Amino acid sequence: MNIAAAIAVHGVSVDRLSARDVPNRNIPDQKTKTPNKTKTTMKTLLTAFTAVIAMSASVFAGEFPDISLADLKKAIADKKVALIDVNGSDSYKAGHIPGAVDFAAEKDLAAKLPADKASLVVAYCGGPACGAYAAGAKKAKALGYTNVKHFANGISGWKSAGEKTEAAK
Question: What's 25's DSSP letter?
């Protein structure tokens, strides 16, 4: 059966047939246009890429929960936290959160951390944009510590909050 016969079966006269009457919408006329496949593909790729970046960032950020400045100050005052400074030895010597361990210089981190593996361990680095803290946090986790957190404000946030630092001895 040809197309004209198939259309006639459905009650449409071939002489009145227009592109709007044809089920395949890929035939362009004044009211419809062929979709731009390049634009559609680029939008799809961009959306997928953005989703992957967002998921990977959230996965990385979620590995070690953040601790607030107020909670960190309370833990320090209560002597219930072990701090790991991951800023490097020069920064550590210039000033670090009181009681922190210099991750870069410490050969035996386990000896500087509490025996109780459920103790709070907080790693920090330069500030919110710094990811160096992860090395110290991962090391503590690898040593078996189960309550490892991240002070996202870092040493820059500590100082800008007006908190005191101590220089290396």
Answer: T
pTM score of the predicted model: 0.65
pLDDT in tens, 75-97: 999 999 999 999 999 999 999 99
Cα–Cα distance, 38 to 16 (Å, whole number): 34
Strand order in the sheet with 147-150: 101-102, 81-85, 120-124, 147-150
Write down the H helix ranges in the chain. Answer: 3-9, 37-62, 69-77, 89-94, 109-112, 133-142, 154-160
**Residue 74 exposure: Cα atoms within 13 Å on the Cβ side:** 5
Q: Please, what sign has the CA dihedral across residues 148, 154, 155, 157?
A: negative
For 134, phi then psi, to 5°, come to -60, -35
Q: What is the pLDDT of residues 142-159, one digit of tens each?
A: 999 999 999 999 999 999
Beta strands 101-102; 147-150: pairing state: unpaired
Residue 66, helix vs strand vs coil: strand
Structure tokens at 48: 């997928």
